[in-house]
Amino acid sequence: MYNYLFGPVPSRRLGMSLGVDLVPKKVCSLDCVYCEVGKTTELTTIRKEYIPFAELIAELDRYFAESSQDPDHITFSGYGEPTLNSRIGDIIAHIKQIKPHIPIAVLTNGTLLHDPEVRAELLGADVVLPSLDAATDAAFHRINRPHRDINLSRYIDGLVAFRREFKGKLWLEVFILPGYNDSAEELAEMKRIIGRITPDAVQLNTLDRPGTVPGLRTLSAEEMQRVISLLATDAIEIIAPAQKRTHSSGYRSDKENAILETIARRPCTIADLSTITGLHANEINKYLSVLENEGKVETVRQERGLFYQVKGR
Ligand code: SF4
User: Fold this and answer.
1) Among 33, 66, 97, 234, which residue carries the largest CB count within 10 Å?
2) Closest CA to 193 of 180, 176, 174
3) What span, in angstroms and rounded, lies between the C-alpha atoms of 289 and 242?
4) Which run of H or E residues covers position 191?
């Protein structure tokens, strides 16, 4: 049992990915309407050692001592914004010392990259996947609901500066929500900003799991094509749909069954499922995406949040 590690999880972009959580649930500098792990409860820009560094290092060492197969990536993601952890650079350095051949990926919202210290701490990673969903202040505040100290133009400048300094792969994730950031004007401005950042890839994502705000919907295939043609940026990619994850070698039917058996007894939120099965919310989300796409589960919104149940029950 680990407190800060989860998976390996079959990831759409990173193969079998060992997740590392660097902040508790749910510490973040943003409170995105589409967030898969729920509403931000600690909206902050303060960097500190949110989890005990020595405990995390001990868990990593134990994991690699006990595990016979290396993951494709070690990925900092999880319940919040990993760059808020002030020891992220030391953690990267430790992993590079014990497992130099395993690439390290950092999923970040990128809002702290204006800080030269944060940029320097991420230089040891192999892949950094920052997100940027808005090109205008109005869309930024509507989708990402940032901490009051975060300023969009400084955020974008941070991404541009990091691209200049970072020698690894930079994959920019843009989350498109119909009615929020898909107007022609917003996308024209986004295109200009992407031209400044020059990431190695632009990965378009849209709603896969329901967000914290009711009424959000996913982008249709036609709408996605329109976004692609308006962005007209080289190296654009669409993040693969959930069904394809079942082809991943790491897709575990025992975990899928544990989730299905639990919700067959009673409808559960992701937090309930995490408590009952002991799986991380990110991992549960991956399996629910597949099950929902296969028509095996459905969601019902109730006062306490979004509940998952076996379809047709
Ligand atoms: S930045 Fe990521 S973790 Fe934070 S609220 Fe947005 S989607 Fe959730």
Assistant:
1) 33
2) 174
3) 6
4) helix 184-197
CA nearest ligand 1 atom 7, residue? 35
Give pTM, 2 decimals.
Answer: 0.85
The preferred substitution site among 26, 28, 280 for testing ligand 1, maximizing ligand atoms within 8 Å of CB, is: 28
Residue numbers of the domain that contains 211: 5-241
CATH number at residue 163: 3.20.20.70
Answer with the one of 241, 256, 274 that is the final residue of a domain.
241
- Nearest by Cα to 165 from 105, 121, 228: 121
Is the shortest distance between the CB of 81 and ligand 1 below 6 Å?
yes
Strands 297-302 and 305-310: antiparallel
Q: Are residues 187 and 131 in the same domain?
A: yes
- Alpha helices (H) along 99-183: 116-122, 137-143, 152-165
Domain boundary among 223, 241, 259: 241
**Taking a C-beta distance cutoff of 8 angstroms, is the pair 194, 212 a contact?**
no
* Residue whose CA is at the smallest distance from ligand 1 atom 3: 80
pLDDT digits (tens, 9 = 90+) for 222-267: 999 999 999 987 788 887 554 444 555 566 788 888 888 888 878 8
Q: From 30, 108, 282, give the residue whose CB has the most ligand 1 atoms within 8 Å, as the site to mutate.
A: 30
> Domain tally for the chain?
2
Q: Are residues 157 and 293 in the same domain?
A: no
